[in-house]
């Protein structure tokens, strides 16, 4: 996953960058899994960090995770930049769990419909052969 950080008018220290990449990097295990891993490695995360103009001590962070068919966007505000990063991670984790649960439910529902079909292709041929004898 590529992480793009945009922080106008804020000098981000290497500690903040490392902390951000460490926290966001943990979200890889919640990403949707496909058969071809190359598709999932091309995901992009955009993070924008700003300071509130009226209150210099308030940090505002917005994050967008671009999935193949969906964009997950979350934002958080906190007086501590590390606290805001933690809030972003928690919100993204919740959204990714919800997204993967929905995908799994859709897959299971489709498989249940196929299972409940009255005539399976193998059964149809076997019944037909029995009738001819």
CATH superfamily: Ribosome hibernation promotion factor-like
Q: Output the helix-strand order.
A: EHHEEEHH
State the low-pLDDT regions, or none: none
N/C terminus separation: 61 Å
Q: Report mean pLDDT, rounded to a whole number.
A: 79
Number of domains: 1
Could you walk me through the main structural features you see in this protein, from its secondary elements to its overall organization?
This protein is an alpha+beta fold. It has a single domain (2-132), classed as Ribosome hibernation promotion factor-like (Double Stranded RNA Binding Domain). Helix content is 48%, strand content 22%. It contains four helices and four strands, in the order βααβββαα. Strands 1-2-3-4 form a four-stranded mixed β-sheet, covered by helices on one side. A hairpin with a 7-residue loop joins β2 (44-51) and β3. α1 packs parallel to α3. The termini are far apart. The mean pLDDT is 79.
């Amino acid at each position: 996953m590529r992480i793009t950080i945009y922080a106008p008018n804020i000098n981000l220290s290497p500690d903040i960058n490392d902390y951000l990449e460490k926290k966001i990097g943990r979200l890889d295990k919640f990403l949707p899994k496909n058969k071809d891993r190359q598709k999932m490695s091309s995901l992009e995360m955009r993070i924008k960090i700003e300071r509130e103009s009226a209150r210099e001590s308030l940090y505002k962070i917005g994050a967008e995770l671009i999935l193949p068919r969906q964009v997950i966007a979350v934002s958080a505000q906190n007086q501590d930049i590390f606290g805001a990063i933690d809030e972003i991670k928690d919100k993204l984790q919740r959204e990714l769990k919800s997204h993967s649960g929905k995908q799994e439910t859709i897959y299971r529902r489709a498989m249940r419909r196929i299972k409940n079909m009255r005539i399976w292709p193998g059964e149809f041929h076997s019944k037909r052969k029995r009738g001819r004898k």
